Amino acid sequence: MYRIGQEEIDAVARAILSRDFFKINGSGQEVLHFEEEWKRFIGADHALLMTSGYAALASGLIGMGIGPGDEVIVPAYTYIATALAVLEVGAIPVIADTDETLTLSAADTEKKISPRTKAIIPVHIQGFPSDMDGLQAVAARHGVRILEDACQSAGGCYHVKPLGSIGDAGAFSFNYFKIITSGEGGALTTNDRTIYERALIYHDASAVAFFGSQLDGFTEPLFGGREYRVSDLTGAILREQLRRLPGIRADLKRIQRQIADRVAGSLTVAPSHDFEGDAGTTLALRFDSEEETRRFAARCAERGIGLTVPIDTGKHVYTNWTQVMEKRGAWHPRMDPYQMEENRGAASNYTPDMCSFTLDLLARTVYLAINPDWSEADADHVAKVLLGKE
Q1: Is the dihedral of CA 71, 76, 77, 83 positive or negative?
Q2: How much is the CA Rg of the chain, to the nearest whole Å?
Q3: Helices and strands (H and E) in the chain: how many
Q4: 104 by DSSP, 3-state: which?
Q5: CATH 3.40.640.10 fits 6-241, yes or no
Q6: CA of 209: how far to CAs of 125, 213, 285, in Å?
C-alpha cells in the first residue's frame, strides 16, 4: 500500500451513508463508475471490477472459452494464482521459462505450443513489461489468445500502450500489496464483447440475472459460475485510488530513474523490454553468481537497505507451487483437471529443474523496492549504499 488517506475514508462514508451500497443501486453506483473510469484509463471497451486478480484471470479464461482439454502457457516466475486460475477452468497450466527480464520468454513459449494450447498468460511481474511484440507474434502464428496478467503493474506501459490493454484481455489486482488498493479487489478489461459477456456472467453467476439491467443486449446464454461480485465500498475506495495513480507512478519512476542513473556505471541494471514504461515499483540488479548476489544483499542489509533475491519469494517461483507440482488441481478428484479424461496426455510432466534458466536468473538478481515518498536525499542515500559508499 503506497498512499491512502482521508479521501478514501470520505468515499467509504459516502457509500455507507447512502444505505444503498450493493453493487446494483440507484445511489452512488461506485462500482459502475469505477468500471467506466478504469476502462477509460486502460483504454478498453469493457471493464469488470471483482474480488481479486485471480478472479479476473479465471473470468478472462472463461470468457475466452477455455476449459478441459486445453493448455495455457504461464511463466515459471509469477504468483501461483496465475497457474491456479488455469486449473479453476479445468485446463492445464504449461510452465515456460522467462527471458533475461524475468518475464515470459517468447522463444520458450513457442517451443511449448501444442495443438492443445489455447492461451498464453504473460505476467508483467514487479511492473516489468513482458515482450508483448514477441508474444503477440507467437500467438498470431498459432492462433491462440493472450490474457495479460497485469496484477503487479497498474499504470505501467509497453511502448506507450497501457499494460493490460494489449492482449485479448487484461487482469489486474488491487489487493493490499499492489500499486493502488482496496485491500482486496481485481479487474478484467477487454475489447472483446464475447469475453466480456461470459466473464460478467461467470463472476456474478447467482445474481447477474436478478439485479438491474446487466444483461441488456447480451447474446451469451446464462450458465453456472462463481460469486466474485464486490460492493460499492470497494468501488468507492478504488475511485479515489485511481485519482492518485498517475502521481504515484510519476514519483515511482522519478525515484527509480534517479537511483538507476547513479548506479548504472558500477552495477548491472537488469534488462527490460521497456524501462521507461515499467511501473517503477522495482529496480532490478543482476550479478554473475548467486554468491555475489547474496553478499551484495547482505552488505546492503547491514546498512539498513533491504533487498529481495527473488528466488526466495516462495509461491512466486514455480518450484514452490505445491498444488501444481504435485498435480492436485481440486479437492474432489472428479473436479481435478489433472485427472480429467479430456486432459490425458496434456503437458504436465513438471520437474523442479524444468526451467533452470529462470531459476538461475532469480538467484542472480536483487530487487530494490521503490518508495514513491522518498525524497531526493533518500534516493541519493540508497544509491550510495548500493554503491558501497555509505
Answers
A1: positive
A2: 21
A3: 12, 12
A4: strand
A5: yes
A6: 36, 8, 51
- Looking at residue 33, its amino acid is H
pLDDT tens by residue, the chain, 390 residues = 789 999 999 999 999 999 999 999 999 999 999 999 999 999 999 999 999 999 999 999 999 999 999 999 999 999 999 999 999 999 999 999 999 999 999 999 999 999 999 999 999 999 999 999 999 999 999 999 999 999 999 999 999 999 999 999 999 999 999 999 999 999 999 999 999 999 999 999 988 878 888 899 999 999 999 999 999 999 999 999 999 999 999 999 999 999 999 999 999 999 999 999 999 999 999 999 999 999 999 999 999 999 999 999 999 999 999 999 999 999 999 999 999 999 999 999 999 999 999 999 999 999 999 999 999 999 999 999 999 998
Q: Tell me the one-letter amino acid at 319.
A: T
Scored b (16 or more CB within 10 A) or e, 298-320 reads eebeeeebebbbbbebeebbbbe
Considering Cα of 280, then 367, then 266, then 377, what sign does the dihedral take? positive
Task: Give the Cα separation of 206 and 215 in Å (integer).
Answer: 13
Where along the chain do its domains lie? 6-241
C-alpha grid cell for residue 227? Answer: 460469486
What are the residue ranges of helices labelled H in the chain? 6-17, 30-42, 53-63, 81-88, 106-112, 132-142, 193-203, 232-263, 290-302, 322-325, 356-363, 376-386
Query: Amino acid letter at 308?
Result: T
pTM of the model: 0.97
Q: Which of 102, 126, 103 is nearest to 282 (CA)?
A: 126
CA 151 to chain centre: 2
Single-letter amino acid, residue 44: A
